[in-house]
């Protein structure tokens, strides 16, 4: 008995493979889009800095100190020191100095 595959069975098998490859390709594209969406929506917290004029030796930098509190770091380039200021907790608008660092000692330059 010689049983040869008919052309119809071969075409069904080929159609099944092409459907499977399309489904795999679409799943891959969806995975790529999901990863792009997740990576695109994540951003690092911002730290804003402002340097006043070319003659000034100070740089002001703000950063999150707490969930609802921003800190102001004032960097004195002439003396190579950094000063930290936080707003008062009573929300009066006052800014309180919290400490200073000698950057020359910290970084050894």
Overview of this structure, please?
- The protein is α+β, with helices and mostly antiparallel strands and 109 residues long.
- The chain folds into 2 domains: 37 residues; 56 residues, no CATH class.
- The protein contains 2 helices and 5 strands, in the order αβββββα.
- Strands 1-2-3-4-5 form a 5-stranded antiparallel sheet.
- β2 and β3 form a beta hairpin.
- The radius of gyration is 32 Å and the shape is elongated.
- The model has no long low-confidence stretch (mean pLDDT 80).
Task: Give the % helix.
Answer: 25-40%
The largest sheet has its strands arranged as 1-2-3-4-5
Percent range for β-strand residues = 25-35%
Strand tally, please? 5
- Are there runs of 5+ residues with pLDDT below 50, and where? none
Estimated structural class: alpha+beta
| Largest pleated sheet | 5 strands, antiparallel
In round numbers, the mean pLDDT is 80
Our count of helices gives 2
How many domain regions?
A: 2
Give the helices and strands as they follow along the chain: HEEEEEH
Tell me the distance between the termini.
Answer: 91 Å
Radius of gyration: 32 Å
Query: Which geometry do the CA atoms define?
Result: elongated
Feature tags:
109 residues; alpha+beta; 2 domains; five-stranded antiparallel beta sheet; 2 helices; 5 strands; elongated
